[in-house]
Write a structure and sequence with these properties.
- By secondary structure, the chain is an alpha+beta fold.
- The chain has a 4-stranded antiparallel sheet, with helices on one face. A 4-stranded antiparallel sheet has the order 3-6-7-8, with helices on one face.
- The chain is rod-shaped, with a radius of gyration of 27 Å.
């Protein structure tokens, strides 16, 4: 005689568990999609780091080469959103040399090519177009002698978010708000 075999039921997922999982996947999908559709300030942060790096490079050159009559400066073309060193190395020229090392300049299109605005102000609220450094690494004006940024200078990269590069009076270069 045959014995009846017991039925083994495998337990599956309940309808509520499936709905919860689908909702979680949907929420993650919406969150991830919004992150990929917008750069949320990534471009501004990238330019901020480039400007900070270029300013630190020029500052280091100034501290290593203290010969008289040599200018170590970073120029800002705020109309075109560009920055870079002078046309002739270690010169006091006022035009940007876009042929020098790429890490020192923004390129002719500058940050404006990425839809951003570049602006800079010194401690008096005047536009910052020339940022020079003396042999101590302190910020100086166009004449290469007069100290500037006595209460901090600020370079802003404005887009979806605003990023700042601060030049403190004694030459400390950093991101964020001056004096903070």
């Amino acid at each position: 005689m045959l014995r009846p075999t017991p039925h083994h039921f495998t337990r599956g997922f309940t309808l509520i568990e499936l709905i919860v999982v689908i909702l979680l996947i949907a929420i993650l999908g919406v969150t991830a999609a919004s992150r990929f559709q917008s750069d949320d300030g990534f471009t501004e942060a990238s330019w901020q780091k480039r400007i900070l790096s270029a300013a630190r490079n020029i500052q280091q050159q100034a501290m290593q080469n203290s010969l008289p009559g040599v200018c170590h400066r970073l120029l800002f073309d705020l109309v075109n959103g560009a920055y870079g060193p002078p046309a002739r190395a270690n010169s006091c020229a006022t035009s940007i040399d876009f042929s020098r090392d790429n890490f020192l300049h923004s390129g002719p299109g500058g940050v404006a090519a990425d839809g951003l605005i570049l602006t800079g102000r010194d401690n008096n609220g005047s536009l910052l177009t020339i940022l020079g450094f003396n042999h101590l690494g302190q910020p100086v004006g166009a004449d290469g002698v007069t100290r500037v940024c006595l209460s901090g200078c600020e370079i802003r990269i404005i887009g979806e978010s605003t990023r700042r590069v601060c030049i403190e009076p004694e030459g400390f270069l950093h991101t964020g708000v001056c004096g903070g």
